[in-house]
Amino acid sequence: MLDRRGFLKFVGGAAVGTLATPVVWKGLDDLSIWTQNWPWIPRLDKGNNLNTYISTTSKLCPSACGMRVRLVNGRPVRVLGDESNPLSRGGVSALASAEVQLRYSPARLKRPLRRTADGTFVAIPWYEAEALLRAELVKAARDGGLMCLSGDENGTMNELLSALTVAMGSSDFYLMPGEAQTTAAAWKSLGGRGRVGYDFARSDFVLAVGAGVLENWGPVVGNRRAWGRARPQDGEPAMRLAYAGPVQNNTAAGADWWLPIRPGSEMAFLMGIAQLLFAQGCPSAGVESFAELAAVWTPEKVARATGLAPERLQQVVEQLAAARAPLIIVGTDLGQGGEAAPVILGMALNTLLGRVNQDGGLRILPEPEPVFPRAMSYGDMMAQDFTAAVRAVADKKRAAPSLLMIYEANPVYAMPRGAGVEELLGSAGFSVSFSCFLDETARRCDLILPSAMGLERFDDVNTPFGLGEIFYALCQPVAEPLYESRAAGDVLLDLARLIGLDMGYATFREALEARAASLGLDWAGLMKGECAISRATLPLESLIFPSGLIAEALEGRFIQPEKGALAVATFTKLAFGTADSAIPPFATKLITDAELTAGELSASMNSATIRELGLREGMKIRLVAGEMSLPARVRAFEGVAMGTVALAAGFGHTNFDAFNNGKGANVMDLFTTVEEPGTGLAVWRCPDVKIVKA
User: Fold this and answer.
1) Which domain holds residue 220?
2) Which of 84, 140, 502, 586 has the greatest number of C-beta atoms within 10 Å?
3) Are residues 237 and 165 located together in one domain of the fold?
4) Is residue 539 part of a domain?
């Protein structure tokens, strides 16, 4: 008999491959039932149908994939990669390929909802919802009590939200924590100006430290396409890749070298590279303090801290020295809450190798000029620390906002339980969520406003994080918004006008047209799917190596877990979706049954660690971290560093839909927030866990 797993193997390939086959729509419905019962995938009517295509860009996928959306009689039915897009070059992620289906998700918000006195929600018309929000905006304007959080990673929508916040007398505009803020903080600590990008596609040797460049870091789809072009089956590779991290994730599996280092030992690894570079004659003029700090980090000391054999470290340095265009990228597999000190070291090493503003190197990009009056600059947005602000409210060190406005972000699910998000929502005078889905954060708010999805509104992408060049693309609606959802930009511009604020534009489309004009771009061309690319950079100025900061960050690190405890490494995959989208349709073939077990984590360890702890494959255990505890089941996987347990992020939703709720457990329940030594940045950390047999 063909079981679920066997059927998926028969189908084979990624979601894109399945979608490309001429499966009849009834068959596709059957497929959705096999792959976790998504019966809401739209079906076509029988008969002759007119096919049209519209080019746009994904706002749901962090990779900003270029898409050609197929419409049948005006109804979107399928997403294809856009080969003319200079970033993704025809590639499309599992998340972007499911955008048409996600329009019909049972978690999709259909109409405005208001919380009643007994905590339940009632549907209300838009005019009532707007009147309610307008009254709260007027109250907040009187005392500057607006706090706004945005989940948009790179669009002009952030300018509108920050401009509205500032116009109302507040500076409390924040972006959802992510790699971009950590990288900006690191660059600022070096005295740099502008923003940092990495020219992955033009490098011939990339050392990725914790950054899943082929899975979840930066413009992943573009990285994958560049990697594929550089690795022809019938020729010599034009690019080599080494990945240093505690888990053999998809990036490590695809790399030429996986360097298994313990969680949290990235700084020791990078200091070891610096020590060898200086020892081999790399000039130290101007960075004498860096050379002095690195001198003690011999390969043997690095091995004790990281678990990596000294000869493996030497091999990495040899590859860096031999490469024509080496590049070092430092990040986190979780993609958020990471520390800035390791990123500082990565940037300093790129500088040491002379790889700044070079093809295939670290590049200094100019910041975009805001088009909204009073909008915060890119640098000012990056400097806003939402995690610290939330903690201050929870600790009663600052007043709670009278109005908390959340735009397409899900911090209740995505941030550590101890971060204080629940306390912020509980103490805010009034909270409103602009969301496409009825997620964990929306359910905690007083007013929920259904956002039009990216395929249903005008939006834009302005240089995704990590990209080594300026990139601009338009997102345009391919269909009318479903149900009673509306574009949040237009809703806010209407409300601002009603309370007497001039935001400069009547509609959000007008603001995007102004953005295009400011960049010298043709609006008609953008509507046809054309994109803008620029290799412009800012000149490198003298950087100051923050030796005191690095020394403080190094102090007291690299302590081995106590006997019976394990260091925690997290990993995620783009196919798992995001906190805002949850698991996309068609992606379940990439997820194991163990990861979907209700309320449990799949705890991956190598066989030596399992034997040392007296465990066995499939055994039920509990992971205990401080006062937190989560059930888990042991999974043997040799791609995990010694003394480490690897846990997948992206599961354990509690308030999304029946296809996500209770699937696995949320690893963020084990995390806490701390202040990073040296930088003062609020970062996320998971303490070592003890294993208790269930």
Assistant:
1) 195-365
2) 586
3) no
4) no
